Amino acid sequence: MNNLALKELLYKLADDQLILGHRNSEWTGFGPILEEDIAFSSMAQDKIGQSLALYTLLQSLGESDPDTVAFTRNASQFHNCILVELPNQEYDFSLIRHFLFDTAEALRFEALTNSSYEPLSQLARKIRGELRYHTLHANTWIKQLGSATEESITRLQKSLDIALPYALGIFELSSLEKELIDQKIFIGENALKEKWIAKIESVLSQTQLRLPDWKTVTPVYGGREGKHSEHLQPLLDEMSEVFRIDPGAEW
After folding, report:
1. Segment 115-159, tens digit of pLDDT
2. What is the DSSP string of 48-59?
3. Cα separation, 112 vs 92, whole angstroms
4. Domain locations in the chain?
5. Residue of 241, 242, 222 whose CA lies nearest to 230
6. Which of 30, 40, 50, 149 reaches 20 to 30 Å from 113, CA-CA?
């Protein structure tokens, strides 16, 4: 098994969960209604827990311990897609990002339950169960607000148009993609993207939201190779502040 390809896959999975987990946690105390405040806080906790489990798999493959990996790297060393690092903005943008990203993650971890790397397939079964709640939450609100008032539809449509190029960046190809597919570690980003597009189209067909012709959407790539927006490093600085003050602290 190609450990380099496997590590690259695990890093991008873990980094996605960690960064979006922290972005979602920023809604704690600021949700538009109490129910959503609790929902985003709960999903944030899930994602950070998932990142810990994935970083622990990386440690078993010879990487540093999870705290060191999570809190001592600079932005250029992170492999998350750019979508997850963007500021929350208004609730409509966070909801659209939640819908687009968690739809992809649900399909990704469903596929990973069949991974030839048994520790990952076992973990994927657990994460798949948690993501069912996330996608149920996203789909419910997208269907409701995407067919409600003129204002809600307009705001969601604007956020959808902004987020789609970044969402396609979720599926940025790795130079080691062939090894992952040949060794049956993962089905590959192109296969995942096809499933995602079908699912996104199915859900949005039940709303008044409209997707553009996919051929007209230019993906925003770079995150998987450590080329990030200006928003990531300040977030990492905030996340790691306590750890950098006292790396040996115990909670």
Report:
1. 999 999 999 999 999 999 999 999 999 999 999 999 999 999 999
2. HHHHHHHHHHHH
3. 30
4. 3-210+218-245
5. 222
6. 40
Distance CA 131, CA 141 (A): 16
| Exposure on the CB side of residue 1, measured as CA atoms within 13 A | 12
28-59 pLDDT per residue, tens: 655 455 466 567 778 889 999 999 999 999 99
The average confidence (pLDDT) of the chain is 92
Cβ atoms of 159 and 92 closer than 8 Å: yes
Residues 6+ apart with CB under 8 A from 35: none
What do you get for the CA distance between the two ends of the chain, in Å?
37
* Predicted pLDDT at 112: 98
**Distance from C-alpha of 102 to C-alpha of 47, rounded to nearest angstrom:** 10
